[in-house]
UniProtKB/TrEMBL annotation:
SUPFAM superfamilies: lambda repressor-like DNA-binding domains, Periplasmic binding protein-like I
Keywords from the UniProt entry: DNA-binding, Transcription, Transcription regulation
Domain HTH lacI-type residues, every copy: 2-56
Gene Ontology terms, MF aspect: DNA-binding transcription factor activity; transcription cis-regulatory region binding
Highest taxon, organism lineage: Bacteria
Protein name, per record: LacI family transcriptional regulator
Cited Gene3D superfamilies: 3.40.50.2300, lambda repressor-like DNA-binding domains
Record's keyword annotation contains Transcription regulation: yes
Length: 341
């Protein structure tokens, strides 16, 4: 097995620097850190985790709290999968491992408000990242208020060592409506996310604000709630198509729902964008692959992971909870809102 001295020699640094890369990566400049980690992978060097834990009094483990009840498909959503990859990559670059603390709804009746706190302490985790996939119970609130470093994605949290990361959901929705208006659309409907989720509520607010600013009618029958998934988008679009006066454009508050909406429009014998223009939200991988290509509001998925990793590691190392971060969104224009030339 490769040793720390061998790794240091190959990288042209001291063993102490190698130790800092794995124990306190934030104090090593990025170029040196990347070189040491790359070389370590090449020669198969693995730090002694037990020794490292004893020396630093840290486990270098961050828990991921995410409801994986098989009856709730949140963990299968491609947006969350891309965030998870970004989070794991960002934590690995800082010398931390990620441990999923998932629970099944089948045992929810047995859980207490302290279940997650006990689990974090039992595993000696240094901090926690929480993903809001639409369920939020008292045990998560207790965790954020426990003093354990916590970062929540897409949901505000309270606690002396807790913060959250989210996107500019309302601003992204305004971009979508403005784009459709610029393309000559006036009867603009929306398929929302679940109203009880922050992204769902904020994207609806952005849609409503921009419709009012542009002087466009805000029709109650042009607002249909979805669930962020394919089937929900399909069902919601069918409701809009059944209206006596159908819309000429739809802002869909999630790309998976938008793909379902595309299918419903095709089944009705209509064309996108000629009959109905569509704009989604997220910019998941499939958005660029479906015909005619989905115009969408892109979230910074890698940025989610990086921001969450930076915040939780900073708190682990003694920093105060940083202020919430709101990541910008951008419009990606494809064929679903612009007729082919």
């Amino acid at each position: 097995m490769a040793t720390i001295r061998e790794l240091a020699r190959l990288c042209g640094v001291s063993p102490a620097t190698v130790s800092r890369v794995f124990n306190n990566p934030e104090v090593v400049n990025a170029k040196t850190r990347e070189q040491v980690l790359r070389t370590a992978r090449q020669i198969g060097y693995l730090p002694n985790e037990s020794a490292r834990t004893l020396a630093t009094k840290k486990s270098f483990m961050v828990g991921l709290v995410w409801d994986t009840d098989h009856r709730r498909p949140g963990w299968r959503h491609p947006f969350f999968q891309e965030i998870l990859i970004g989070l794991k990559t960002a934590l690995s670059g800082r010398g931390y491992h990620l441990l999923m603390l998932a629970t099944s709804g089948d045992t929810s009746g047995e859980r207490t408000e302290d279940a997650y706190v006990r689990s974090v302490r039992r595993h000696n985790l240094d901090g926690v990242v929480m993903i809001d996939s639409g369920t939020w119970d008292p045990s998560l609130r207790r965790l954020s208020e426990s003093g354990i470093p916590c970062v929540s994605l897409d949901r505000p949290v309270e606690g002396s060592r807790a913060t959250y990361v989210t996107s500019d959901n309302a601003g992204g929705a305004r971009l979508a409506v403005q784009h459709l208006h610029e393309r000559g659309r006036r009867a603009i409907a929306t398929i929302t996310g679940p109203a009880h989720t922050r992204p769902g509520a904020e994207r609806l607010r952005g849609y409503q604000d921009e419709m009012s600013r542009l002087g466009l009618p805000r029709r109650p029958d042009f607002v249909v709630e979805g669930d962020f998934y394919l089937s929900g988008g399909h069902a919601a679009m069918r409701r809009l198509l059944d209206a006596d006066d159908r819309p000429d454009a739809v802002f869909v508050a999630g790309d998976e729902m938008a793909v379902g909406a595309l299918r419903a429009i095709g089944e009705a014998g209509l064309k996108v964008p000629e009959d109905i223009a569509l704009v989604g939200f997220d910019d998941i991988e499939v958005a660029a692959l479906v015909p005619p290509g989905l115009t969408t509001v892109a979230q910074d998925k890698a940025g989610f992971g990086t921001a969450a990793a930076e915040a939780v590691v900073a708190m682990i190392n003694g920093a105060e909870a940083p202020p919430p971060q709101i990541l910008p969104t951008t419009l990606v224009v494809r064929g679903s809102s612009t007729p082919p030339l």
